Amino acid sequence: MAREWLLKSARAVLTMDDAGTEPADCDILIRDGVIAAIGANLAPGGAEIVHCADLVVTPGLVNTHHHLYQTLTRAVPGGQDALLFGWLKTLYPVWARYTPDDTRISAMAGLAELALSGCTTSSDHLYLFPNGSRLDDTIEAARAVGLRFHPTRGAMSIGESKGGLPPDSLVEDEAAILNDCIRVIDAFHDPAPGAMVRVGVAPCSPFSVSRELMRDAAILARDKGVRLHTHLAENDEDVRYSLATFGCRPGQYAEDLGWTGDDVWHAHCVRLDADEIALFARTHTGAAHCPCSNCRLGSGIAPVRAMLDAGMRVGLGVDGSASNDAGNLVAEARMAMLLQRVDRGADAMSARAALRLATRGGAQVLGRDDIGQVAVGKRADLALWDVSGIESAGSWDRAALLLAGPRQVRHLFVEGRQVVRDGQLVTVDLAAVAAAQHKAAARLAAG
């Protein structure tokens, strides 16, 4: 049975409910992994009390796109100043030398970094499996760190010799890809409310898999009742490739192959046009907006304001640390807010609207109605932010975390279990993880 907690006298609770409720001096009772009560002066019973007078409580942040294996390849020379396709070509040979231990430790480091930034749920898009690496390696890492996890079984099947972008050494046989998708879904996917692991199917991108695999993956996912994920319209190169190879824009390509619907979310979507936005809104297709990575790779500013105005489902993603350099989801939310203001004006996105993308928006994109809000009956995935420090000193609105607030949490709860306490990860030995990460990165760099 999960431990009981009483979060006592929180300065503010940003509930992200339909009414945008933000109660002050508020208690939250956690029991059996669920929010059992919210209100003033709740009786603690046998619950352990966490005093929250200097803390703002939000739902745990939700990361809708990541490549956790990339945490081992931050700031790689030759890829630091390249556009998407050149960046990939620089890094493919490095990734081809990964071992299963590399995949696991990189995922553990990335998930630990996310947890410290207030993230309680993360997806992951793993699309290369060198030297025996498996999706199982990342699932093991997520269980150790304690985050709710949406791993997706990615794939690449069209190598350079057939006109694709990746080297032939990193592509897989398409029948083997589909068979392994079935294996990991049967082994790990949990459709129940409160599930800690839900598996998705995720061919990498239109420039690294065949039309047939895209179509067959969609059929398989729907037969299994799991979600679909891929990259789409990430930059101008991506759109040009689609036009030249398929004779249509990315949105049309997706629709033709069954890749629209409320069980689908696409990463980036930087270059969607108005017709594609309308298509995705109409079909309830989601988008994972990755603003820092899009900036780093020079991909552009995604039309998030237009997406939201059209009724699209939009969440946030940190993307891989090889193209972001960091995995801080609250920093991602601030960047999302700032870029929309650069693009559309200072009133284009408020701090609270950006935080909503990082919480309830992400939950909706991942098909979760049991997280993303602070409400009775929802899972107890909560981030507690200390606003007594220098980052918030002088702020008139302590709930405006993205304007004047900390970038790391004081406490983090996932399914009612404490993952971060007093700013320290308590589930794994972070120093040991960092040491293993440095050692593996040095080995890869030397090679």
Describe the protein.
By secondary structure, the chain is α/β, with parallel strands linked by helices. It has helices at 84-95, 100-116, 135-145, 174-188, 211-224, 236-246, 250-256, 274-283, 291-296, 304-310, 321-324, 329-344, 351-365, 430-446, and strands spanning 5-13, 24-31, 34-39, 48-51, 55-59, 61-63, 119-126, 148-155, 200-203, 227-232, 264-268, 286-289, 313-316, 382-386, 411-414, 417-421, 424-425. The protein has a domain at 5-59 and 373-425: Urease, subunit C, domain 1 (Roll), CATH 2.30.40.10. Strands 1, 2, 3, 4, 5, 14, 15, 16 and 17 form a 9-stranded mixed β-sheet that branches. An 8-stranded parallel β-sheet has the order 6-7-8-9-10-11-12-13. Helix 2 crosses helix 14 (430-446). The model has no long low-confidence stretch (mean pLDDT 96).
Brief descriptors of the model:
Urease, subunit C, domain 1, 447 residues, alpha/beta, 20% strand
